[in-house]
Amino acid sequence: MTDSLRGAAAIVGVATAGLGEAPGRSSLELLGEAARLALADAGLGIRDVDGLFANTAVHSHPALSVGEYLGVRPAFSESSSIGGASFVGYALTAAMALQAGLCKVALICYGSNQRTESGRLRAKSGSQDYETPYRPRHPISSFALATARHMHQYGTTREQLAEVAVAARRWAGLNPEAFMREPLSIGDVLGARMVSDPITVRDCCLVTDGAGAVVMTRADRARDLRRRPAYLLGAGMAHWHMQVDQMADMTVTAASESGPRAFAMAGLSPSDVDVAQIYDAFTINIVLALEDLGFCAKGEGGAFVQDGRIAPGGALPVNTNGGGLSCCHPGMYGIFTLIEATRQLRGEAGARQVEGARVALCHGNGGRLASQVTALIGTER
Fold first, then answer.
1. Which residues form the Thiolase C-terminal domain (predicted)?
2. 270-291, pLDDT tens digit by residue?
3. Does 127 reside within a domain?
4. Residue 284 belongs to what domain range?
């Protein structure tokens, strides 16, 4: 069954809007601009959309609010939320809906004005019954716990984690859309304000405005549209918990299941990946994901990212747009992994282009190391 999804659908349009700061604009206005630009990128219009996959951090019924705003009357819609990983998951759901004939043009979209709204996200993320008495500072405290455990268990150092932030900033320096582009050193990361020991502010993602949109169609239609398609080759999802205290092992995430499922569907392995776009809410996300997705053994993530290995010119380009650490993070970041991966496969990434990129991995993280969704997309070749 899953084999039939390999290459059956493709991304045919992508766009961003308002990355960084967009004063005076609502989340829906930003989302609408990204949607319009993504459809134009594909050579399509809003009237072509009959599949809507939308989420925001502020609407209780996102598909309804977004559909009304855009003027879309979808035959199929999806807005279930598993946090920032939702949008990578939507790529899989959209492929299923397209293959089943439930829709012909799928629009995946997100928008947020979190930064200019003073960092406020009104929607609640759910109860933390067991954690609340200890007054954690979520989500940062959760990731600090995982970071501290990885350091204790495997000897991972703060310097190694800082390599992740420095690599992201080096990529951001090549991306005119990135919000923070000024040089960053390991010393800068280590010397930054401590937020939740052992995490400094430079181990944390940005707080920005921004929107993103992705358009998907069946593969047979994709070949006739304006841009070179990026085909969905495989995808997998998994989640084991909501509250971080329910993790059986704070150094192992459900990516250890979502990754193998995606690679199995695609008929590929980590060695086939030319570029990886991984949700980096915090520096520890990259270390854990590289281990759990099979790029290195458990406990070796810190050593893996050393010496610029994931930076420009490194063996495995990771987050070539600058990621959530340096490009943008408007509340939920997952959709931007799909956008940047598509641009790399099209050869449209400018100074940050990875030469000869044919297979890209997109990985979304949701909640507190909770939901994990992995997708592999590739060129027609």
1. 236-378
2. 999 999 999 999 999 999 999 9
3. no
4. 136-204+234-378
